[in-house]
Amino acid sequence: MSQPLLLQRSFFQSGATLPYQKRIDALNRLHHAIRQHEPQLLQALQSDLGKSATEAYMCEVGLALSDISYVRRHLKRWMKPHYRRTPLANFPAHSQIISNPYGVVLIMAPWNYPFLLTISPLVGALAAGNCCVLKPSELSPATATVLTTLIAETFPPEYVSVVNGGIEESQALLELDFDYIFYTGGVQVGKIVMEKASKHLTPVTLELGGKSPAIVTADANLRLSARRIVFGKYLNAGQTCVAPDYVLCQKEVHQEFLQMLKEEIRNLYGEHPLDNPDYGKIINRRHFDRLCRLINSAKVVVGGESQPEALRIAPTVLDNVSADDPIMQEEIFGPLLPILVVNNTNEAFRFVQSRPHPLALYLFTQNSKVERKFMTELQFGGGCVNDTISHLAAHNLPFGGVGNSGMGAYHGKNSFLTFTHQKAIVKRGLWLDPALRYLPYTPTKNQLIKKFLQ
Asked: What was the pLDDT predicted at 1?
C-alpha cells in the first residue's frame, strides 16, 4: 500500500510537478480525458445511482469540466508571488508570499457524487503542483472503474494513481504519512480520518454534512420557494450533502406552502415519480432500508411509495414533524422532507442555533432584516437566499463546512489555496544594517523600538 506514496514522493521531490506549464499540461490532459470518457461516465453514474444523462452531466461531468476551465484561466496569476508591504522595522527589505504545493496528497471521495467529488479536489491539487493518490468509494463501483481507467490513461502512477477497495484499503492509506488529506463523507468517518492524520500531524480538509435547514417565512414567494426546495431536495434522490434536510415553515403560510410542494413535485416528477426514468435510486439496500424505517406513514402527505427491487423511494413529504421524531435525529440523505411548523422567524432562528452547525442553510424571505440576521449571526458552511444548492456551483465562492459539518474549503481559487502552503519570505537588503535590534540595548534604542512597534 505504501508503494504509490513512495513513487510519488520521489517524483515530487524531483521538481517535475512545479513548473506552470507542467500543471497546465496536466489539467489539459485531464479535461481531454473526461471528454473522451464522457459516455462511459454517464453510463456508470446511471448504473451506480440511477442518474439520468442530463443530471449526470449537469451535476458531475459538466461541473468537473467547468472547474478545470476556470482554474486554467486563472492559474498563472495565482502562482505568482504576492508582494506585501514591509514594516518599517524591517527596512530595508521586501516581503512576499510564495505558494508551494504540500507534496503528496490523498483524496478520499464519497459515493453520492462519485465523479465530481473525486475530480474537483484533484483539479485543485494538480493546479497547486502536488502528486495525488485517489481513493474512490467502493459503494459506486461502476464510476470507480471508469475513474481508474481514465486516470491510468492520463497520468503516470508516480503523478496520479487510484487505489480501489473498501474499509481495509482506506484504513491502510490513512496509516501512511501523506502531506495532506482531503476527505469528503460522513461525520463519523471524518473523525477517524482526523485522528489518523494527527499521528503524522498531517493537515486535513473535511467536507462533511449535517442537517441543512430551509426556512420559509410568511413573506416568502411560496411558489418559487416550493419549486426550488423540491429541486434541491430530490436531486440525486436526495443523496446530496447540501440538500435541504428539513423545512421550518412559518405557521401563517404552512398549509399554502404544503399544497405548493405537492404541486411542484407533480410538476417536476409527474403523477407517478417511480415511473420517471430521470429520477434516481438509492445507492444500496442498506441505505434504502434505513430510509424506509424513517418514514412515519401517519405523517406522510406526499409520496411514501417505494420499489425495493429498484431501490427507489418516491419524493416524500412528512408534515407536522417534531424535533424529537427519529427523522430529525440524523442526516436523512434521501428523498424524505420533514416539515416543522414555527410561529415566527425568531423561533426558527433559535431552532437552528441550538443544533450542530449545518453544511448549508436556505432562507426564503423578502425581508432584508431577517435575511441579514440569519446570514450573519448563524453559523453554517454556506447557503442561499431564495434558492437551494446554487452556491455549490459558484467558482469564485469557497465551499466548505464549519464545526460538525467540516473544516476547510475549496472550489476555484480556494481549491488552489487548499492544496498550497503559503510561504512567507522577507528579503533584507545588504546596503544598510541598522543597529537597533542588536545588543547592547540602550534607553535610546528602547524609545525607538517602542515608536516603531506601536
From this structure: 64
| Neighbour-count burial of 375, counting CB atoms closer than 10 A to its CB (0-12 exposed, 13-18 middle, 19+ buried) | middle
**How far from 350 is each of 340, 341, 380, CA to CA, in Å?**
14, 13, 14
Q: Is 131 a catalytic residue?
A: no
* First CA to last CA distance, the chain: 54
Residue tagged active-site, from 207, 249, 264, 331: 207
Q: What are phi and psi of 284, to 5 degrees?
A: -160, 175
Low-confidence ranges of the chain (pLDDT < 70): 1
Return the pLDDT at 453.
80
Quick one: pLDDT at residue 448?
84
- d(CA 258, CA 249) in angstroms, rounded, equals 9
Per-residue pLDDT, 92: 86
Q: Which of 59, 131, 132, 241 is catalytic?
A: 241
> How is the chain split into domains, by residue range?
3-208+406-423, 213-393
pTM of the model: 0.95
pLDDT (0 to 100) of residue 17:
98
Identical fold between 3-208+406-423 and 213-393: no
The four Cα atoms 112, 113, 119, 121 give a dihedral, to 10 degrees, of -70
pLDDT of residue 437: 82
d(CA 334, CA 355): 20
At the fourth CATH level, the homologous superfamily of domain 3-208+406-423 is: Aldehyde Dehydrogenase; Chain A, domain 1 (3.40.605.10)
How high is the pLDDT of residue 84? 87
Cis status of the peptide bond prior to 87, with omega within 30 of 0: no
In this prediction, residue 179 carries a pLDDT of 97
What is the dotted CATH code of the domain comprising 213-393? 3.40.309.10
* 241 given a catalytic annotation: yes
